[in-house]
Amino acid sequence: MRVAILNPSFGDDFVRVARWSAKSRGRVQRHPEYLLTAAQVLLDDGHEVIFVEAAARNFTPEQSYEVVEAFNPDLLVIHATTPSIYNDINQAKVLKERANCKIAFVGQHITAEPINTLSEIGRDVVDYALHGEYDYVLRDLARGMEPANVFGMSWWDGQKVVHNALRPAIDVNELPFPAWQLIEPEWYPDGGKKFPFLTLITGRGCNNACTFCRDPQLMYGYNLRNRTAQKVVDEMEYGIRVHPHIREIMFETDTFAADRKHVIEVCNEIMRRGIHKKITWSCNMRVNTPLDVLPLMRQAGCRMLMTGFEFGYDEGLRAIRKGGVSTEMARKYSKEASRLGFTIHGCFMIGAPGETRSTARQTINFAKSLPLDTIQITGVAAYPGTSLYKWAKENNYLRANDWREWLNAQKEQRTLLSYPQLSSKEIDEFIDTGLKEFYLRPAQMWRMFISIRTVGDLLRKLHGFKAFVDYFVKKISGYLGSANSRPSNTRQPDARLAKTSILSN
Questions:
Q1: What is the pLDDT of residues 365-424, one digit of tens each?
Q2: Of 169, 203, 231, which residue sits at a domain end?
Q3: Residue 306 contacts residue 254 (beta carbons within 8 Å)
Q4: Are residues 424 and 282 in the same domain?
């Protein structure tokens, strides 16, 4: 079967495959690791596959249409998101007419809202809504199985939505490596990573139950399934072979260091093969990571720790059910990581259930008190399908009646949670205040300046600084609520996107 996988555009710099779906303040992009894994599953099964990376490449819809139509697929797979769902359905409608193919939607939003997608806004356009891990669901569809026999999806039978039984969790060690040959790392800028870089998923699922986090609740479950250390390092070597010029690999697993034994095994395997002498790597972390693994991680080439601190007060952590962590742990973790020479990126939020002006200020002050190199601050996002979304709807704290309200005119994430004691507008004000207070301190600017060691470091800092200035200039000018004036990228699709050969690892 001929399968086209489309990561559709939605204005310039819209990010689809991160933990949020929006244009980031840092103007970063994320690699479509899960889409590319599914692509390789199909390729290994003998199907012809193209991957159209329209989001990261800022394609116009017409550019996407031309590539897909020329390929003439039997099945079109589209990654859809909550704020872009109407855009995604509109593009699917055009492609259904021009390419005359079946259409499957994948992603967190589709998993949460299959009925709305299939029988309401996407009726007669979207044929299949795939739930959670879709790698083998797509393979079954591509093999021509009858929809009624394909586990892990909902579908429209002409009269009603039919929900098939879910698939059991996948053995992650059986999955192939992502089809990195279908993308170029240069398409994915990120001021916090050595550029160019690739991402790597060391496992799926998460042992924690934070109320706001979409992936454990909708995609991969609450049981962390780690790949073997050998598999993880095999993929590192594979990524380097496919793209020898990459300078870093980001372990994008929700919490890489959740399993102490796994971390030790991965680090030892990296050093045994000498990969730490070739490139650096970074990872997502929690503050309750056993501190005794940090020296080994540093020795094995780990450079940056992207850490979910979330709030500067323990009540906020408990309010989102971020179990097993505390602000005291955060201080000890930050101190030790900084002492060892890690770059620390802190992730913070404003808008926990029960948040007040006083507690929001606590989080800002807490972030400033830690030895962090960079931070991000966002409003707490309650996405469909999460327990936070259900709670917010039940208590009338969610200020949105339409999926299109999830983004502002700049396609940046809107703060939709609003409380009697703290409005969404006030949450936004605290976010901006926190970012300015953190980055505009002389000591912090000096810290960032002396961290520049190479031309690459300088370019990364300039990228982040430009994004920071761009955001606040538009805020000050009142432009944030108007349409994006940046010129659209008019690059033409290249031949790589029209590959139809059967490839393998």
A1: 999 999 999 999 999 999 999 999 999 999 999 998 899 999 988 899 999 999 999 999
A2: 169
A3: no
A4: yes
223 and 81 belong to one structural domain: no
Cβ neighbours around 430 below 10 Å, total: 23
Q: How far apart are alpha carbons 312 and 470 in whole angstroms?
A: 27
Q: Write the DSSP assignment of 16-59 as a string of letters.
A: -SSSS-EE-TT------HHHHHHHHHHHHTT-EEEEEETTTTT-
Range of the domain at 151: 2-169
Tokens of 342: 């890690």
Residues 131 and 246 placed together within one structural domain of the fold: no
Instruction: Look at the chain and count its residues.
Output: 505
What tokens were used for 346? 């802190």
In this structure, is residue 461 part of a structural domain?
Answer: no
Q: How far out from the chain centre does Cα 105 lie?
A: 17
User: What is the reported pLDDT for 255?
Assistant: 84
Distance separating alpha carbons of residues 137 and 229, to the nearest angstrom = 27
The β-bridge partners of 346 are 307, 375
Q: What is the pLDDT of residues 250-307, one digit of tens each?
A: 999 988 988 999 999 999 999 999 999 999 999 999 999 999 999 999 999 999 999 9
397 φ/ψ angles, rounded to the nearest 5 degrees: -100, -5
* 359 within a domain of the structure (yes/no): yes
**How many angstroms from the chain centroid is the CA of residue 324?**
24
pLDDT at 492: 41
Going through 171-240 in order, the beta strands assigned E by DSSP cover 197-200, 203-204, 225-226
CATH of the domain at 49: 3.40.50.2300
Q: Is residue 484 assigned to a domain? A: no
What angle do the packed helices 455-477 and 424-439 form, to 10 degrees?
140
Mean pLDDT over 172-181 rounds to 97
- Does position 119 have pLDDT exceeding 80, yes or no? yes
- Phi and psi of 465, rounded to 5°? -65, -45
| pLDDT for res 463 | 61
| Structural domain count, the chain | 2
- State the burial class of residue 225 (Cβ atoms within 10 Å of its Cβ: 0-12, 13-18, 19+): middle
pLDDT of residue 113: 96
In a domain, 160, yes or no: yes
d(CA 324, CA 216): 17
Does the model's pTM come out above 0.85?
A: yes
The secondary structure of 251-266 as a DSSP string is: E-STTGGGSHHHHHHH
pLDDT at site 502: 25
User: What pLDDT is attached to residue 462?
Assistant: 67
CA distance 211 to 477: 35
